[in-house]
Amino acid sequence: MEGPGEGGEMAAAAALRAAKRALRGELRQRLRALGAAEKQRQSRLLSRKVIGHPKYQESKRIAIFLSMPDEIQTEEIINDIFKQGKECFIPRYKPHSNHMDMLKLSSAEDISSLALTSWNILQPSDDDSAREEAFAGGGLDLIFMPGLGFDKKGNRLGRGKGYYDTYLERCMKHPSGKPYTIALAFREQICESVPVAENDVQVDEILYEDC
Hints:
The chain has helices at 6-32, 36-51, 54-58, 75-83, 163-173; strands at residues 61-63, 87-93, 100-105, 115-116, 122-123, 142-145, 149-151, 156-157, 180-184, 190-191, 205-207. The chain is an alpha/beta fold.
């Protein structure tokens, strides 16, 4: 038998899941309609914004995603991280879970040695134990975050796996504290409002063409 309020909570949770699912479908459609040249144009513009950003300039240990085709291309930023002598960390997602680690890249060329997962993402293999894990070496100063959609309040809609929310919760418990977070978005990914739950962690800043 349901306790007081349980039915309402379950209905609210179901409504939230449905709202997120509907918005993900709409955003995927918008991204499919974006041509390769336009994606490249916005990615280059954002790379310049990042390289000139004070938070980026003052950060030493930076985590960044390796882009999928429907995300801002991060290659230029990664090249600059190494050019500036900063340390670069990339995600290793654990399948069938919401667990993710940030592992160190030794160079931009190191990317070509990574394995391609079944989701078409390059990442260090499960048996790669030689790389430094970010928490083991002093945490992170800055995380660049992907996502499907964002609103101007800093709410983020991911792909539904919860990797980044879970990782940021772990960061908050780490002695070095939560890193500054910047989402990189095409302007087509900016929404009026993103539906969120209590455990969805807001992004500190969203970078896109018109911001």
